[in-house]
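User:
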Amino acid sequence: MRDHQLRALMQVAESGSIRAAARDLNLSQSALTKALRELEESVGAALVSRSYRGVEFTPAGQALLTRARLSRSMLQKAQEEISALKGGSGVRVAFAMTPVVAAAVMTKAFREFERIAPDVQISLVEGLPSIAIPALIEGRIDFAFAIANSKELPFELSFREMAKIETAIGCRKGHPLESAKRWSELQDARWALNLSAGSQGNQLLRWMRERGMGEPKRLTYCDSPLLMSDLMRRADRLCVGPKTLFSDPIFGHQMSLIAVEPAPPDMVLGVITLKGVPLTHAASQLLSCFERHLRGIR
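Assistant: Predicted structure:
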């Protein structure tokens, strides 16, 4: 495998077609096609296929693409660290953060980090497992704060528990079910849940099944915390989430808690990293800032 062959593979994925990739790399289509063919010969497997939908990656191609992106990301991080050691700029830290961490400690952690590393550029993405996991595996982010089940994470990832988070059922203030005390009263309620792998919604449904409760019948699937909060306020949906988040004066504005018994089990908040890949100095500093302020959170 040669560098120009891997760059051709990654550019096809980013550009969406061989023609566009050749243009973006300032190559002829024949030169790019030759690089892909040589790469396939090198690994002994077909990597891309063409159909009426355009270029698609085979399972082997997708596996190689993921590792190639990770390799490129690791080299970029090494270059940034070397530049920093020489007094240069351009150091970046990218991470994912779940809303409960943002509401509880983000301001304090950012202020502390900006004092010790004022020139580091920060990139932030949503801390949902469906977003954070692919970004970690491809090296697009350094770490992720997420509420997750470690048993459901891919083997490439490492999960370190940081806190147990109280789970609550939330609704808008004044909702007809706001004063409900029993789960049976919620049987016909409208819900909005994130049901991606390892999500809080999936954990709630699994817990309800284990206890023999009837699962929600009127369900809206949603993987955006912002849209979910709008569904609660504007469309009378019930949601499951961290109690501290629903009680936050900004995120939880006009929200209320439904104190049903028994309460759903606590959620596990932790930091997810790529197994066997050390964090850069800047990423370690930022993670430490958050960890100091996350102690004791519930």
